[in-house]
Amino acid sequence: MKPIIKLLQPAFWLRLPRLSARRALVRGQLLVIFALVAMLASAIPATAGDLQTARKANLEMSQGDVRVILLRTRSVVLTNGQSGFAVTFAVEVPQKGAFSDLAFSSDTEVVLIEGGKLLTPPGFSGMMYGSFKQLPFRNELIEPATTDGNAMCVEDVVFTGIAVHARKIDIRIQFSWRGSPQRFDFKNVVVD
Predict the structure, then answer these.
(1) Are residues 40 and 78 in the same domain?
(2) What is the SS3 assignment for 113?
(3) What is the CATH number of the domain that holds 162?
């Protein structure tokens, strides 16, 4: 048996000879420390698996000159106590005519699909930012690199009165670029 495994087993520590009260206290503290290390070590594979799953999810898609980066999806509790769901994404387009040629339709811009079923939240609100640096919560996200000659805007859409229970969800982002409809289907996105 490996020495570290032997140290993590409570039976090893209980077989040690009886010691003074002070040494018994130290032994007890060591038992607690080793138990915590063992619990943390057992949690690591699950976390790493979730990270690998998140990385496998296609969080960036391109169609022609247009690139969409899904920055974050998360369940939220709104200030009125209602459940909500937020989607934050960036859209990168060529700098010439960048935002004047970009058109979003508020009712179909972001579509949520849970377990193959279309979710229809009662309400939503969205906030568009001209750059990543304008996001009030940018320190919680990783800033996507912008390709030379392109411009990027970021939008945060919050759906109200909806609770997403799945750990993964499909998200469709759609808009118009220079009169051409664009549709980006992100599958199996891990919910934060």
Answers:
(1) no
(2) strand
(3) 2.60.40
Please state, as a whole number, how many other Cβ atoms lie within 10 Å of the Cβ of residue 54.
14
Average pLDDT, the chain: 79
Do residues 132 and 151 lie in contact, with contact meaning Cβ atoms separated by under 8 Å?
Answer: no
Q: How many CA atoms lie within 13 A of 84 on its CB side?
A: 18
Do 158 and 100 reside in the same domain of the chain?
yes
In degrees, rounded to 5, the angle at the alpha carbon of residue 86 between the alpha carbons of residues 159 and 134 is: 120
Domain around 50: 3-56
The amino acid at 169 = I
- The residues, ordered by sequence, that sit 6+ positions from 188 with a Cβ below 8 Å of its Cβ are 53, 56, 57, 168, 170
Rounded (to 5) percent helix, strand, coil in the chain? 30, 40, 35
Calpha distance 63→177 (Å, rounded): 11
- Total domains, the chain: 2
Measured CA to CA in angstroms, residue 192 lies from 55, 120, 134 at distances of 13, 20, 22
pLDDT exceeds cutoff 60 at 169 = yes
Using one digit for the tens of pLDDT, what is the confidence trace for 44-89?
A: 333 444 444 444 345 999 999 999 999 999 999 988 999 999 999 9
pLDDT digits (tens, 9 = 90+) for 119-149: 988 888 889 999 999 999 989 999 999 999 9
User: What's 132's DSSP letter?
Assistant: G
